[in-house]
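Appendix B, record 7
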Amino acid sequence: MESKYWIALSEHFESSFIIKLYNHFGSIEKAFNASANELKNTDKKAEKFIKVRDSIDIDKSLQEVLNRNIFYVTYEDKNYPSMLKNIDNPPAIIYYRGELSNLDRTLAVVGSRRASYQAKEELNKIISEFKGTDICIVSGLAAGIDTQAHLSALDNGLKTIGVIASGLDFYYPAANKQLYQRIENGCGAVISEYYPTLEPLKFRFPQRNRIVSGLSYGTLVAEASLKSGALITANLTLEQGRELMCMPGLISNPNTQGIYKLLKSGATLVTCADDILNALNWEIKKEQEQIPLPELTEDEQKILQAVEIEEKCVDELMAQTGFSVEKLLSDLTTMELKGIIKQVSTDRYKKV
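Structure tokens (predicted):
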């Protein structure tokens, strides 16, 4: 079981070093058990690895993850997200709670932690236009735009993935604990490359940004100042060869200065969901909401069955149902009021 070696190494080392070992030896188990001589020329961190290797309890590291009901997928697993394999410095392992699926149409949304009310409202409007589609919203579960992106996805029946900058033992910010749990309970996944006990330290936030953009076909920047972390994600998006899009805002708002810098550099302007679909060349078919029919009497069901395929005139309906003209017209009026059928000419009716 090679996965336990991936897990044990992730508790002590960054993904770049683990992937380098894997690529050099072709097996993470072989890398873990390699001699000091075999390891010395692989990476400058190999010396540290040799020193701490004997103190690493592989089985304990695995058991700690299992005890927390955390799922994981390693770089060599067939279920590892293909989008991430195409970026520089992919995560060696992904820990997650929830369901890591529905990754065919992924859209990253990033922006300011101190987002304006207007930006949140406009973002909510755009995401709500994806209702009934298979689009999955990816963001970082931070305050501000990230939180709004996840909430808008959930409120419109979309899957969403939150990429965090710590192990899954932590909720950051603490105010988003319920949002974490809502995503985990069937509405997507909360994921991390970090071993569960690793804290949300400052340097880990820019590191996780490559996963937010790397999981996605494109990134929408909703609001960002010139020194915003969202601009880091925007640059990563371009480096990864993905589509960069921006939502405009008030030019007097300092949080839009980064937006207009990106737009001047060629990012796609987005004011509605169709702008995103066009930029990503996505054609989508929305699932039709099933509206339950009102309760029908037995006679009303006969009339509905008669117009199920094509519209009918009163004479045809009388012949098919056997009803008198008075009863038929009374039932037709009632069914119109219920919104089940519609009169299309003087005496012709069809199903709505």
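Remarks on this record: The mean pLDDT is 92. The first helix runs from residue 3 to 10.
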